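Go through this fold for my students:
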Amino acid sequence: MTVLSEQTRTLSTVSNLINDPGPRGTTSGTFAVIKDYGNITLAAAGLVLVKFAQTDDNSGPSRIRVKIGGVYAFATKRTSGTPTFSFICYLAAGTYAVIVEAHRGNSSEVTMTNFQLGYVSFTDLEGSALAVYSGGISKTTTVKVTPLGDLKNTVYAVTVYATTAGAHTNLENPGDALTNGVQVLLDAVQQSWGERHQGDGNDQPAGGKCYVAASAGSSHTITIGKDNADTVVNINVAVCPWILPSAVFEPVTLDFNQGSTAYVVLEPLDANPTKFVAVGKERAITFGASTDYYSSTSAADIIGFSYTFEVVKVGESGLLASGLGGCISHVGVDPR
């Protein structure tokens, strides 16, 4: 029989819009423009992906921030090594200026290399374009039938840039009590940041990412809490069942004939993390992945995963995945 498949990442729209090996740098002790890339134009709404490496010639901490369409999207803090930073932004169709600013840490020179900015779209993608936060952001992923079954959960990918005039800003996890704290909440429940870069000096911004799964077919609301009313938060929210969070989640409810083979392809998105995919579920008493899952794999780069449901019942096992920075690009089934 013919394999039924869906390409969730629309490869025909993928574009590498900026690819700058650099280096770009500054010795300024305050934020200075290190590169004005001019304008990018998006013909349709989708995700803009940004990635770059950062270093300096001292112990830091040096900082880089990226402005898209006049709004700051993300801030980094480098303390050692040559880390690579990345983030995604949901943007509507239109033209956007892209500017990168940086300042040194201590007496060092900060340097950015290998700056890339690209565009991609997905099926089932919703979002709220980059803007200054002013209130709760509610979005819904519509339940639809995929080759593997109905959509079950979706991922709310939240990216923020936060700053407090004359002070520093910190992103707070549950239980934290930090200066000028900023919290992210899903349906009024505080979440943990999957990645956060704290401010630690006057006027130093914080940048962070929180990817959290929630049920498809229902409206869910992202809100921002602030300890200081004067803290300004720029926020972007992308909602899609094919973006991977750091925690394992179940994107679909498996529903196809017993004896069929399920297929999933996982790929890098804005980063190339170790991605995980499995069939099974956590047990009443868990002894780890080797007993929770009937089949699983994890790796960087592109993963092709398949499992044939011969003995294991389709409706009683879940398809699970994770890998912050990655995505699910294809799903399919060979029906029997």
